[in-house]
Amino acid sequence: MQKPEMTPEYRKTLVQMMESQAYRELAAAQMFGYGLQFIPEIKNLKFMTWHITEEMEHYQDVAKMYESFTGTSVEPVVNKRLREKPIAFAQSWFELAMAQFLYDRGGFWQLQEYENCSFEPYRTVIQKIIKEERGHQDLGMQMVVDLCKTGGFEAEKQPLFDKWFKQGMLSFGRPNTDGNKYAISVGLKKRDSGAVMQDFLNDIKPAVKACKVRFPDPKAIGLECPPGLDWSL
Ligand SMILES: [Fe+2]
Ligand SMILES: [Fe+2]
Fold first, then answer.
1. CB within 5 A of ion ligand 2: which residues?
2. Could you say which ligand is closest to the alpha carbon of residue 126?
3. Does residue 111 contact residue 133 with C-beta atoms inside 8 Å?
4. Which tens digit of pLDDT belongs to each residue from 39-98?
5. pTM: predicted TM-score of the whole model, two decimal places
6. What is the pLDDT of residue 1?
7. How far does residue 82's CA lie from ligand 2's centre (Å)?
8. Predicted confidence band at 218 (pLDDT cuts at 50, 70, 90)?
């Protein structure tokens, strides 16, 4: 779709998508950057610094696209949002692994909803980011499973799972909104947030079982979910 054919609503939705994406990428870079102080060995320090660099590059990719689309910088928008809605920082190595597992994975599932986006520049950027995010996926999950198996995190594993599970689920946006319906109708995204939530749940179930934690009651953690999600383990 070329710019002149775009309706104001299409344009507005696209700008919102880019702003949220830019926010999530920079928030990830900041959160994992803050977490470096908790990493005990070089092997995982190398993984995490590489990961931070990639999140930073994703932010830059989205920022470039935003600038060529709107003619303005996304930086003030993202900085303001980070001030108003700062991302939680992990406060231990175990929590950082949990965050890497659930926050990053939520983002990965969300991005896949945009891979066939009707706006070509967004599609191109997102496909590149998805390819790189694929490489982030397994380590955090494996670390959480291994750390849980040591038995050394019995008291904190469930509260930290709840906290970062909520962050992961928030990546998808609220389900069944008019904004969702509109974005789907014009091919900006594939499906409603509820459907993506289900994919995410299914994806993490094996790790949830291996860690011997359970899914929290969504209402208890302030999460809006559609009825009929399959939470069974
Ligand atoms: Fe990213
Ligand atoms: Fe990532």
1. 104, 133, 136
2. 1
3. yes
4. 999 999 999 999 999 999 999 999 999 999 999 999 999 999 999 988 899 999 999 999
5. 0.93
6. 53
7. 18
8. very high
Q: What is the pLDDT of residues 177-217, one digit of tens each?
A: 999 999 999 999 999 999 999 999 999 999 999 999 999 99
Ligand 2 mean position, distance from CA 6 (Å) = 31
Domains recognised in the chain with CATH numbers: 7-221 (1.20.1260.10)
Question: Distance between CA atoms of 50 and 45, rounded to whole angstroms?
Answer: 8
- d(CA 58, ligand 1 centre) in Å: 5
Ligand 2 centroid to Cα of residue 2, in Å, is: 30
* Ligand sitting nearest the alpha carbon of 137: 2
Among the bound ligands, the one closest to the CA of 27: 1
The pLDDT tens digits of the residues spanning 18-34 come to 999 999 999 999 999 99
Ligand 1 center to 22 CA (angstroms): 9
Distance between Cα 35 and ligand 2 center (Å) = 14
